[in-house]
Amino acid sequence: MRRFLVLAPLTLLIAVIAYEGYAVTRAHARTPEVLALPRPLTLDRVSPDRQAALLTVDDPNFYGHHGLDFATPGQGNTNLTQSLVKRFYFKRFQPGFQKIEQMLIARYVVTPAISKRDQLELFYNYAYFGSLRGREVIGFPAAARAYFGREFAALDERQYLALVAMLIAPNALDPLRHPRENAERVQRIQALLEARCRPADRGDIWYAGCAVNR
Asked: Least enclosed by CB within 10 Å: which of 50, 87, 156, 185?
C-alpha cells in the first residue's frame, strides 16, 4: 500500500510531463500556419502611441518578458503572448492543466518562433471582441466596423480606447450594449495612460485606484 501511495503520484507526474511535452511538440508543428495567417491590419498602420496604449493595458511588460510574467503590476493572469496561444493553439481552452500548457507554449514555442512585432500584429488582427448579432467579432478592424461603423483608421482616440477597454471582458464591456461600463473603463484607462494612477499589483486589472470620483 505504501509503495502504491508513492508510485501513483510519480506515475501521474510522469504522465503529465509526457503529455505537456507532446503538447509543446504539437504546437511547434502548428506555428508555421499561425505565421502564415493573413494580417490585413499591419503595424505600420497603427501609430506608436496607440500601440503603446494597448500594451500598457493588455501587456505592460510585453517587450521584456519571454511569454511569462508573474510580477508586472496590472498584468493579470494572461499576457498578450498567452492570449495568442489561447486563440491559435486550442480548440476550446479550459482552465487547469491547459493553463500550464498555455504558459509552456508561450514560453517555449511562441516566444522563440514568433517575433514581438509579429505577435503584436497577429493580436491586432485576431483579438476577440465578443459576439454581436450572433457572430463573433475578430480583430480590431472588424471591431471598429461592428461597434462604430468605421474603418479602423477612422477611429478617434476615445473609440480606439473603447475597443482596448473591451479586451478584458468583450461581451460585458461592448460600447453598444454596455455603454456605461465601457465608458467607465475607458476613463480608468485614460487616467492610467496619463499617469494619474497606476495598478496596485499584478492582479489589479480593473485599476481600482483609477476610479472616477473616488
From this structure: 156
Lookup result for grid cell 510574467: 69
Per-residue pLDDT tens over the stretch 20-53: 666 788 898 999 999 999 999 999 999 999 999 9
> Do 105 and 88 contact (CB within 8 A), yes or no?
no
For 204, residues 6+ apart whose C-beta sits below 8 A from its C-beta are: 73, 74
